[in-house]
Amino acid sequence: MEKVNLDWASIGFNYRKTPQRYVANYRNGKWENGYLTTDETVVLHESAGILQYCQEVFEGLKAYTTQDGHIVAFRPDLNAERMIDSAKRLEMPPYSKEMFLQAVVAVVKANAAWVPPYGTGASLYLRPYMFASGPVIGVKPSDEYQFRVFGTPVGPYFKGGAKPLTLCVSDFDRAAPKGTGNVKAGLNYAMSLYPYVLAHQNGFDENIFLDSATRTYVEETGGANILFVTKDNELVTPKSDSILPSITRRSMLYIAEHYLGLKVTQRPVKLTEVEEFAECGLCGTAAVISPVGKVVDHGKEICFPSGMEKMGPITQKLYDTLTGIQQGLIEAPKGWIKII
Ligand code: PLP
Ligand code: COI
């Protein structure tokens, strides 16, 4: 497969149009057959549910070229399952796992020239999403929906690649205890933009959100879950019903336990404990594993011993093992890699 001419190693995390995307419509109580199209625009009714009441859910996953030249996707079945959960929470008709996987495969195959070559560090980021396309004016679910998947080649999510990040503890809340923090809906991101811009203006890379009920426990950032490593090399991740169940985090916990022989614990993590950890990282499809060097809590600086120059040793091992599995260098647990 001839690849398009791009400087793959230097692309950032930006939208870049690829030739084909997938579209399917829900009308008259059922999902119609989907199809590929070159048209990247969406024409909407002025009163579409997405425009009026933000009825939308999405996913994010990546396709890679492995060392032996296959194009693969990482655990796309879990994205399909999570999108079903998200859709149910927003009163949208779930798009089945089979149809989801079929759409992802179709988009990757149709844009194979845009899947970055092995060894470039880049990948094809896939964005499945669905939204209410039918008109509503009273607050109620729409009768019509559209499901789409497009792909865009991406490099590192955070500028500077693997340089440790500085986070600030946000004064804003991301999710309420029985709210929508545990599903991947655009509305969770819309409300995070103000605190995100504020954090950037103040020189921080991202926000740490706390639990909104007590503001004492660490939840997650605007676009990734958080990992901590204790001084005894135990991996600890915050447990909460209002954070997104990250597929990267679930994979990380498995890798830490079964590949690296580490003790892993998921439990509520108090903000006051953070200064006791040896390493910290953010994990997600876009973030992969991005090291955190410093957390600032209202002027109080918490500097992790791993410093601001490089990843901590355990974070590095987790990163190497995860990316090794994704690129076909390390044997994957059964079912993690879908060859396309
Ligand atoms: N948390 C939030 C708020 C996210 O947007 C994401 C990204 O998908 C994650 C966590 C990480 O989830 P995953 O590892 O499934 O990409
Ligand atoms: C992802 O990691 O896929 C995300 O969705 C995070 C962010 C880009 C919204």
From TrEMBL:
Q: Which domain of life is it from?
A: Bacteria
* A Pfam family matched in the record: Aminotran_4
> Could you mention a single GO BP entry for this protein?
L-leucine biosynthetic process
Example GO molecular function term?
branched-chain-amino-acid transaminase activity
Q: Which EC number applies?
A: 2.6.1.42
Which reaction equation describes what this protein catalyses? L-isoleucine + 2-oxoglutarate = (S)-3-methyl-2-oxopentanoate + L-glutamate; L-leucine + 2-oxoglutarate = 4-methyl-2-oxopentanoate + L-glutamate; L-valine + 2-oxoglutarate = 3-methyl-2-oxobutanoate + L-glutamate
Protein keywords? Aminotransferase, Pyridoxal phosphate, Transferase
Q: Required cofactors, per record?
A: pyridoxal 5'-phosphate
Task: Report the residues modified as N6-(pyridoxal phosphate)lysine.
Answer: 184
Q: In which pathway does it act?
A: Amino-acid biosynthesis; L-valine biosynthesis; L-valine from pyruvate: step 4/4; Amino-acid biosynthesis; L-leucine biosynthesis; L-leucine from 3-methyl-2-oxobutanoate: step 4/4; Amino-acid biosynthesis; L-isoleucine biosynthesis; L-isoleucine from 2-oxobutanoate: step 4/4
Family designation: Belongs to the class-IV pyridoxal-phosphate-dependent aminotransferase family.
Q: Which NCBIfam families match?
A: ilvE_II, PRK13357.1
What's the protein here called?
A: branched-chain-amino-acid transaminase
